[in-house]
Design a protein that fits this description.
Layout: H1 9-12, H2 15-34, E1 41-45, E2 52-53, E3 59-63, E4 80-81, E5 107-113, H3 116-119, E6 127-133, E7 141-151, E8 164-170, H4 172-184, E9 186-192
Antiparallel strand pairs: 1-3, 2-4, 5-8, 6-7, 6-9, 7-8
Length: about 190
């Protein structure tokens, strides 16, 4: 019969507890060994964000081991987000409006579309047509066709009933037509897929 040395006898009763403690220490050591190194802090969306101006609290700094190219690392409040972002998504310079380039021969034309629910169907990069309707029973008329949406700014006040603002890449002639139609009529959109 195997007899244990005298110094080991007090620990024999606790061997399961010791084995569990050693296993936990092994798991903790493995976690520390494979944990990715903390990288530089970049700004990520604190919640789902819509296109428009960034406000304090929209973004939070998070260390990423491998940040994407063009990751924004400093204050971005007040700049314009060109497209929607999901919570936790890193902000890159390509997401900010200043990074978008207008096609040659176009200008940025802000217009107010009468139906904000129709504007909810579009996003930056969408191609739309703009219709104008006037009172007096005249049929609606196509003012501009095949226009690219640059951004759909988020309204500062969600209780607005005057329509929704959209910024479009239009030729100077289309921009003048849109401005004139906006003064005396109501604008609506057609979607291109």
């Amino acid at each position: 019969m195997n007899r244990q040395p005298a110094w080991l006898r007090p620990w024999a009763r606790r061997r399961r507890l010791i084995a569990a403690a050693l296993a936990a220490l092994g798991v903790l050591s493995a976690f520390v060994a494979i944990r990715p190194a903390a990288g530089p802090e970049v700004l990520v969306a604190a919640r789902d964000l819509s296109p428009g101006p960034l406000r304090p609290g929209d973004l939070r700094p998070v260390p990423l081991a491998h940040p994407p190219d063009g990751a924004v690392r400093s204050y971005a409040a007040g700049r314009y987000l060109a497209g929607p972002m999901r919570r936790g998504e890193p902000l890159t310079d390509a997401r900010l409006l200043h990074s978008l380039t207008l096609p040659p021969g176009t200008v940025a034309a802000p217009v107010r579309i009468a139906d904000p629910d129709a504007v909810a169907l579009i996003s930056p990069g969408s191609t739309i047509g703009v219709l104008a309707a006037w009172e007096g029973g005249q049929p609606a008329r196509l003012i501009a066709d095949d226009i690219r949406v640059i951004t759909v700014p988020r309204p500062a006040d969600d209780t607005r009933t005057g329509g929704a603002l959209v910024v479009l890449a239009a030729t100077p002639y289309q921009a003048a037509q849109l401005a004139g139609a906006q003064l005396s009529g109501r604008l609506s959109i057609t979607l291109k897929f």
